[in-house]
Amino acid sequence: MKQNIYDNEVFFTNYKALREDPVNYNELLEQPEIKRMLPDLKGKRVLDIGCGMGDLARYCAEQGAASVTAIDPSSNMLQEAKNRNSHPAIEYVQTALEDAVMASESYDIAVSSLVMHYVAGYEAVIQSIHAALKEGAILLFSTEHPIGTARKEGDKWITDAEGNRLHFAVDNYHEQGRRETKWYVDGVIYYHRSIAALCNGLIRNGFSLEEVIEPIPDKAAIAKLPRIEHELRRPSFLILKARKAARP
Amino acid sequence: MKQNIYDNEVFFTNYKALREDPVNYNELLEQPEIKRMLPDLKGKRVLDIGCGMGDLARYCAEQGAASVTAIDPSSNMLQEAKNRNSHPAIEYVQTALEDAVMASESYDIAVSSLVMHYVAGYEAVIQSIHAALKEGAILLFSTEHPIGTARKEGDKWITDAEGNRLHFAVDNYHEQGRRETKWYVDGVIYYHRSIAALCNGLIRNGFSLEEVIEPIPDKAAIAKLPRIEHELRRPSFLILKARKAARP
């Protein structure tokens, strides 16, 4: 997350256009599950980690959250968030996730949408979040699925000469760590972690796992975006819901 | 598991030869992790689900378990188990997992090695195990990794013309259920389940997840069996350790 690709102008212009079209993978596949999995937000103090353009922060505020502290390292993102998604209950804060200084045992819910795969130090961030949550509080986050981040080289969907997708390619699964890809621009950095690492990083830092979700496109999503049907063929995202365990 | 391929003579003869060679995937990759993850066995009552030839049952007895109830549907397997792995603490019982009538809240530890992918009704079996365990008891099981069971057709390792493995193929991931394959004989049935289904089937039936392991071959294993190095490239097995939660 210390890389801040969202402040690259070429990247940001393209990314904004992608997210402005409501027919995209996040809106059709990931966000519906995140919203279903969130606990009742009324009167709750929410921490939104990597809030981006603030759509989810505003959703939380509109669902009755008492406060939403929405953090992001990108000034571009936060400017957009303030333009589009201002709300009296939301405070937008510019900070790298790794450096965020958060009040201790302050939040009822921490939510993070598709950010953890940009974080270099996963367990350190989980420990910070743990410290910032009240006992019994919920952490809900989504990430690119490890099956999608594993292979280092080449296109991950293997196609025939006509471009038909034959299968999805996995490789390098147990080589965890930094990956580099082209997404609008060269050199976008993300981090591959195994499913075991993601789960155990929660469990051994004081969380109990409550739900594990690999979102599946439904018929309505496929009607809006036919190629999302291929997401039935491989796991696209991983969403983990965990609770800060009571002290023994 | 109601299919009982292990009582097919062609299959069984081949399978026995495979397992008699200690240089195999189970012995090098899966069994070391299972043994590491088992809690202290001294004086404990152990249930071994799908015990096969009884090697793990005997290990548990030799580690000091007070009793090992070792169940399997295959008379071939149980005959081998009794021949090789008899022990005063072990009782071998022939029964289908789905039909096993187990005493209520009797066991401290349930262990099951590479059996769950043969079970048609995963959650029903988890519920039976839950009923058979004492409060606070451990369930530890390994299964073929969902990434390995997903694709319905074709070889899963994609190779070039010289037979070099290019990558591992994933497909049909969200189509859970019955799969058929050839393993020594045609028509070996197993069941594909998603990672989410395996984890949530534990959580929503009264278990808390304690550890998630995807075994990685170490240098010693690669020295003994060089082609096991490819198991660094994809997750081979999934091992889940869970605890029967205390009543609220």
Automatic annotation (TrEMBL), chains A, B:
Matching Pfam families: Methyltransf_23
GO terms of biological process kind: methylation
UniProt keyword terms in alphabetical order: Methyltransferase, S-adenosyl-L-methionine, Transferase
GO molecular function: methyltransferase activity
Top-level taxon in the UniProt lineage: Bacteria
CDD domains per the UniProt record, alphabetical: AdoMet_MTases (cd02440)
InterPro entries in the record: SAM-dependent_MTases_sf
Protein's recorded name: Methyltransferase, FkbM family
Lineage: Bacteria, Bacillati, Bacillota, Bacilli, Bacillales
